[in-house]
Amino acid sequence: MKYALYLGCQIPFLRPDLEVAIREVSLALGIELVDLEGYSCCPTWISVPSYDIEAWLALSARNIALAEEKNLDMVVGCNNCYSVLNHARYMLKDEKWREKTNRILSKVGRVYRGSSKVLHIIHILESVEKKIKKSLKYDLKGLTVAVQPGCHTLWPERVMDIREENPFYPKKLRELVEILGASAPHYSRMEFCCGMGSMKTIDYERSLEFVLEKLKSMKEEIDPDMIVTACSSCYIQLDEAQQKLERDGKIDFKIPVFYYPQILAVCMGFDVSKVARFSSIPKDEIIRRIVG
Amino acid sequence: MKVVKLPKIDGDPVEEVSKFGGEGIKKCIQCGACMSVCPVAMAGFNYPNKKLFKLIILGQRREILYDPSPWACVACGRCIEVCTRDVNPFSVYFAFRRIQTREFSVPSVAEEALRNLYETGYAVTGNANIRKELGLPEVKFALNNGEALKEIRCIIESTEIMQLGILPRREMF
Ligand code: SF4
Ligand code: SF4
Q1: Nearest CA, atom 3, ligand 2
Q2: Do the chains contact at A198 and B71, CB–CB below 8 Å?
Q3: CA dist A117 to A5, A66, A74, Å?
Q4: What's the predicted TM-score (pTM) here?
């Protein structure tokens, strides 16, 4: 199993501990990740795609072409990258856009063929479920997890190669969490937006409302010991916003947040000071409960 | 009965939106399915997808040109999934953003993201020391790779973005 690793900007620059987790669990599970050289921003929705389709498609196509040159499918850890690159791939199925894009790419000596898929690390981990079960040093037995799949791996289905049976009732992340021994019950706001993305930069207060809504639903319905998300943006938002909501007196509890490869890394016994280094809501106590 | 008098129509905004990637708007029947699932609507912004489309269809471009609603879209894709007429509401919404950029109606974060991308290859950047401390390899970003950055700038320079007056035209290396 070999994939081209496309890291994007958010994980390596802002949450490199998540990158450690991705690399460690992949290596241990026999997933070979080849680093791409000279890649750029995906480019994220609020940047180039908000201005110009041709520039967006050419930059995305160039990133994907780097994986194509290695004859590998691409794996990403960030849902924003996943969304931007897969939307681009979908649009590039259209002859008109592909021709325009390749005309631009020819100036820099590249070509987009459409031969590499763009997958999420979650999808790869899903395919090695059995190996995961065997490699666990600790488990989450007795713990309740609120899962947060994140919008960008759910919709729109047409741009993706791997889909949920029903994106409005997602199950994949729940199943992955259950492999670790936890219970991951449904709660009514599970597939709700976390308010991250440009919503957060345009209007922070409104964006916080989404987190509050989600937290209240989790707390009242399933009272979780932790939140596990597949999305690095949801991860940052749910972790940071709780602190602010608590300070504002809007919540009186704190739920630690994990990125899936990160909680997996904890259960596989990796160094928690490396795979779970940065958070606003402390994780020490829950980690102590897990690793004893 | 009170009659609402609409101001004169501005050109043909439907054609304009179509040109920027929102051609699906021509199929919209205003059923509201897109708005019922849209985070921009839930957050209470003035012009979530369907409402914005109605004003475009009515030719009321000026009314919405400086409205920030399209910039709150989180690109979640829910609207694409539920649209009853396969409009691709998300693409229409983004097409309007592109029109706004041509009229200097751009939030500063979006300008900053574009500038960063042109300068460094990335929308966000951070410090490299912590990576070392965590034992991570040096990332093979375009940032550390003159050739790659040259490619990225060349791509951007081949497009209309350079005419928006946000990026400086610069000599390359
Ligand atoms: S993609 Fe944008 S417009 Fe569509 S539902 Fe999501 S936030 Fe609303
Ligand atoms: S769901 Fe589709 S047809 Fe209905 S209002 Fe939205 S864009 Fe128009």
Answers
A1: B28
A2: yes
A3: 12, 12, 6
A4: 0.95
CA–CA dist A83, B74 (Å, integer): 11
**B109 to chain A: closest CA residue:** A201
Tell me the pLDDT of chain B (173 aa) as tens digits.
Answer: 777 777 777 779 999 999 999 999 999 999 999 999 999 999 999 999 999 999 999 999 999 999 999 999 999 999 999 999 999 999 999 999 999 999 999 999 999 999 999 998 988 877 778 888 898 987 766 666 789 999 999 999 999 999 998 998 765 44
Closest of B57, B129, B137 to residue B96, by C-alpha: B57
d(CA A51, CA B27): 24
CB pairs < 8 Å spanning A and B: 201
The DSSP bridge partners found for residue A120 are A76
Query: What is the 8-class DSSP label of residue B142?
Result: G
DSSP A188-204: TTTTS--S-THHHHH-H
- The neighbouring-strand residues paired with A258 are A228
Q: Which residue of B has its CA nearest to A86?
A: B77
Which position has the token pair 């207060």? A205
The reply to whether residue A156 touches residue B90, judged by beta carbons under 8 angstroms, is: yes
Tokens representing B40 are 């921009």
